[in-house]
Structure formats: C-alpha cells, structure tokens
Design brief:
single chain; Serine Threonine Protein Phosphatase 5, Tetratricopeptide repeat; Neuraminidase; five-stranded antiparallel beta sheet; 28% strand
Length: 380
C-alpha cells in the first residue's frame, strides 16, 4: 500500500478517535502499516496505542523501529532509550546500537559517544558487527565534536520544476546534455491522496536547462518506464545504451540496458553476467583503456550489507563482476558510486565508515596500487 494512502487512513482513524479506538485496533493498524512498508503511518498508529498504554515496552520498541525507518530520529532515540533503560539488551539487544545511531543522526555527539562506549563495554567481541561499528562511531563523534567543515564544498538546491514536493534523486547529465533524474510522482486529489496507486511508481525523467531556469521534467516513455519502479539512469561511453535500475512489482531490483535508436529506446535487456540478482545504481566509467560498470549490490561475495561492485562492460555484457577491492567495502552499507575520471576519484556513500551520522559521502583516489583509504570530506 502506498504511504500517502495509509497516511490518509491514519487521518481517518484519528478523526474518529473521539469514539474510542481500542489499544488492539491501534496496534493492528500499526502492524499492517509496517507490513506494507508505510513506516510513517505505522509510527502514528503505534503512537495512538502508546497514548493508551505508554509504558508497554514491546510497543515502545515497535514505535521506535517505525520512527527510525521513517527518519524521525529524535522520537526514535527517545523510545530506544526507554527500551534500553528497562531491558538492558535482554529482549531487545539492538536497542543500544540503534540509540547510538539515532543520537549521531541528530547531531547529539556527546550522547552518542556515551552510547557507543556503553556498547563497547557490553559487547567485547572485536569481530562483531556492532563492536566494529561502535569503534567507527566514536571516530565519527570526534569529527562531529571538532566541527570540521570543508571550505571547498557547496550544496546548491535546484529550483522548480526540477525539484518538487515529491521525491527526486539520482540526477545525472546524459550524452544529449539533458538532466536525467528519478522521481516518485503521482496525481493527487484535493485531500493530497494519490488518485491511482497502481500507477504510483518511481520513473526516470528528463529536463533541459534553458534561459531563466529549467524546463518541466518529462517522464521517459515506455519501454523505459514500464511496469514497476525504474531509476538511476547511466549511459555507455558511446551513448548507445541507457542503463538503469528496474524493480519489477514482484522481483529483485536489477540493472537493465535499453538501446537508444532513432525511434527512441528499445526494450530493456538483462545484463549478461549480472542476471536478475540484486544490482542497482549503475555508473559507467573509463579506467585506462577499459569501459567499466560500477554498481551497488547486496549479492553474496562482499563483506556484508550493500557493497560496491565493478565489472568490465561491453554493451549488455558484464565480465568479471566482483566487489571493489581495497578498503572501501565494510560489513555495513556502501552505495551510490560515482567516479570522476579526471581526478581518478571514486565518490560513494557509507553508513559504516567514520562519519557524522547515517550515510556520509566518502572519496577514494585510485592510485597505482588500487583504491586508497576512503576520506570523509567533512560537512559543506
């Protein structure tokens, strides 16, 4: 179920709260929203149940999870703190870990530092995921407390109509000098609810820079924006193939290729060597005399979580697909590869390397011996 639709159900339930919703009803609605991936709606339903039974620990945990997954980090931190205070890692051993992460995401580095140190005291196994992440977390807290910023990095928000009240991501210039981006957009009714949820999918759009701003973004036609969700446009070096992530309605997200012709785009093709195993966020680069595909994947073979992968690319064939070698991949998640050929620098995101909270951007120079240790450029 789409998030806006379930949020509308929340409003309907809230409007009838005066008639007295039962505790079990609120919990059932929250569980249903979580199962449908509407984490924000679930957090509101669980909050309704907590109004009736505020001290129920299992519900505090459920609401904390819903808040974390819907980026309500301050509320999540408060709830995780209550669970950890009562439970001490008996029933919910991850509460302290998530509490530390939420504190960092809120910029509360002193409190996050305390949580990480407490976690290290309770988890003495140096090989465990949480122990290793706590060590990186403490380094990140030190960075945050130092207030290090970069004088050479600036962030500029593109105006309407490129950015809207919907979601836009994955912007990249194409070989035709148009800006390609991914967006989740739908027609709304007067109440702000999506009219046709069956057509509410992420699609690839294009926009042209013009005098005074940008042209209205237009969705690429079928077969690029076919069924399911489609995002993360990239091109072969000769501009002949468009690569993008296709997430079928009932399947695994994977990278496909569509050949550009005089008549438009051909039907998406699976990439030989990748198949339908998980792959996303394609980036095509030239390194030396080779055309390479960088991408992110949760497939087995890497250290864990989402890892950065690469392979030799030729049209719709990927050879020698493998995790990127060197110190980049971690037991956590690495994603969003972008390679600058002029400086031989790979940009990527990670939630495990020492950062300021959540996903940070890192850079790694490709030298004679391969990719070097990642560097956090600091806050802009």
């Amino acid at each position: 179920m789409i998030a806006r639709l379930l949020t509308a159900l929340w409003l309907l339930a809230a409007s009838s709260a005066t008639s007295g919703q039962s505790f079990d009803q609120w919990v059932a609605w929250g569980d249903a929203a979580m199962a449908d991936g509407d984490h924000y709606g679930a957090s509101r339903f669980y909050a309704g149940a907590l109004d009736l039974q505020p001290g129920k620990m299992d519900l505090q945990w459920s609401c904390a999870e819903a808040c974390r997954l819907s980026h309500q980090y301050e509320k999540a931190a408060d709830l995780y703190a209550k669970v950890e205070h009562k439970d001490h890692r008996r029933t919910y051993p991850d509460a302290l870990f998530h509490l530390a992460e939420m504190r960092m995401s809120n910029g509360e580095y002193r409190e996050a530092e305390k949580a990480w140190r407490e976690l290290l005291r309770k988890d003495e196994d140096p090989t465990s995921f949480q122990h290793q992440r706590a060590q990186q977390g403490l380094k990140g807290c030190a960075m945050g407390l130092a207030g290090r910023t970069s004088d050479s990095l600036f962030v500029e928000h593109l105006p309407d109509p490129v950015n809207t009240y919907d979601s836009e991501f994955g912007g990249r210039y194409g070989p035709d000098s148009l800006l390609y981006l991914s967006s989740l957009r739908g027609e709304l009714d007067r109440d702000g609810v999506v009219q046709d949820t069956a057509e509410y999918h992420v699609a690839i759009f294009q926009s042209r820079e013009q005098a005074g701003g940008w042209a209205e973004a237009e969705a690429l036609p079928d077969p690029v924006n076919g069924s399911g969700n489609n995002a993360n446009a990239a091109w072969s070096l000769d501009g002949r193939f468009l690569y993008f992530t296709h997430c079928p309605p009932d399947g695994t997200c994977h990278i496909v290729a569509s050949e550009r012709t005089a008549d438009g785009y051909g039907p998406p093709q699976e990439l030989e060597g990748l198949g339908t195993g998980h792959s996303t966020q394609p980036m095509v680069v030239r390194m030396g005399n080779e055309e390479l595909l960088f991408f992110a994947s949760t497939r087995s073979g890497g250290p864990g979580g989402m890892d950065l992968w690469m392979g030799k690319l030729k049209d719709t064939d990927v050879q020698f697909a493998r995790p990127v070698e060197g110190p980049l991949n971690t037991p956590g998640n690495e994603s969003c590869p972008f390679y600058d050929s002029t400086t031989q620098t790979l940009f990527f995101s990670s939630d495990f390397h020492a950062g300021l909270g959540g996903y940070d951007i890192f850079t790694s120079h490709h030298g004679p011996l391969g990719f070097e240790s990642p560097v956090n450029p600091g806050a802009p």
